[in-house]
């Protein structure tokens, strides 16, 4: 049986994750990166109809939280989903709330 302190730590981690993806713009950005891994800040901004500045702030926050990671290629940074768990959760949300 799991120790309650372990369960609490998992709850804290889950809450932090849910807090980040509860922002519709961030969730849309994650979907864009899932659809086309390796997008740049500008490409994500264009895809999600956001300013580059706002996109940059959201990307920084999601990278800091370990949801996305960036890989520098030449002069540009490309973004990827860090964990398959993120993709699984986002797919479950899409399925649960889809109108199809």
UniProtKB/TrEMBL annotation:
SMART domains: HTH_ARSR (SM00418). Pfam families: HTH_5 (PF01022). Residues 4-100 form the HTH arsR-type domain. InterPro entries: ArsR-like_HTH, HTH_ArsR_DNA-bd_dom, WH-like_DNA-bd_sf, WH_DNA-bd_sf. GO terms for molecular function: DNA-binding transcription factor activity. This is HTH arsR-type domain-containing protein. It comes from Acinetobacter nectaris CIP 110549.
């Amino acid at each position: 049986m799991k120790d309650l302190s372990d369960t609490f730590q998992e709850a804290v981690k889950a809450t932090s994750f849910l807090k980040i993806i509860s922002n519709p713009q961030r969730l849309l950005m994650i979907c864009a990166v899932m659809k086309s891994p390796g997008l740049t800040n500008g490409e994500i901004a264009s895809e999600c109809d956001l300013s580059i500045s706002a996109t940059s702030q959201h990307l920084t926050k999601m990278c800091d939280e370990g949801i996305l990671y960036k890989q520098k290629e030449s002069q540009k940074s490309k973004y990827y989903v860090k964990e398959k768990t993120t993709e699984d959760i986002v797919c479950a949300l899409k399925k649960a709330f889809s109108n199809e």
